[in-house]
Amino acid sequence: MNAGELRGTIRGIVHRTGMRVYPGRDFWTRRIVFQMHVWRLDEQPVQTQFLLVALEALVGTTPLWRQRLAPGAAISFASTGLEPFGCGALQLPLSRYLGPADDRELLEVEASRRLPDFLDTAEFGRLAHEPGGFAYSGRCAWHGRTVLLDLSGDENGKVDATLEHARTLLATWESWEGQLRALVARELLPLWLDWNPDEAPIDADTLYGRLTLERIRVMDDGQVQLSMDAGGEFTDHEIAVDGTVAGGPTEIYPEG
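Predicted structure:
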């Protein structure tokens, strides 16, 4: 495919790896990226070639986009055509979201690619695959707490690499958590002080102690996303953390 192609209405299935969030062009935006593995342009035949789709979203709208772009969701959107993105790669901009897609043929192709219902692991117990969800998910013990663990699959739906990343994260969590504490001190504590000017000042350890890890998402390329309950410290916002297994956490921010 070439730049400028695929201009029109796209209907497709969000890949089971789900969406990923990166810093946007401006401090008030986030760049959201996802793949589609079953799709069609207008009324043309269904394609199974992978597409990289991107959009710029306002900070605070990420939870809405997570609902719209849930793994396995059938969606429809308008696009202005493929455009270059770094090192000669092409991405398809989502210029206007049109809502859920009602396309029986897309759903039939997606059903033919479903994974086994369960994955049994020594470290995390039994993880379940749900159509329309991450490749595998389940509640597991994580260093003294219970969390929801989501493992995304690669472009073929396999989770071997993701499972190894999750095992590495579990084994090196003490170091990863140390970096997370430093990130809270550097990025989140100043924000808390700004949001709570009438409260008595607290230190980073106190703030970290008020956060509860609830969900860990691990991607096939080693990316990690955490969701943490802030216990009302940032009104009704939860705390999101982005990073990688190898590099540690790199960004923390209220989400919602």
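Summary: Residues 115-256 form one domain.
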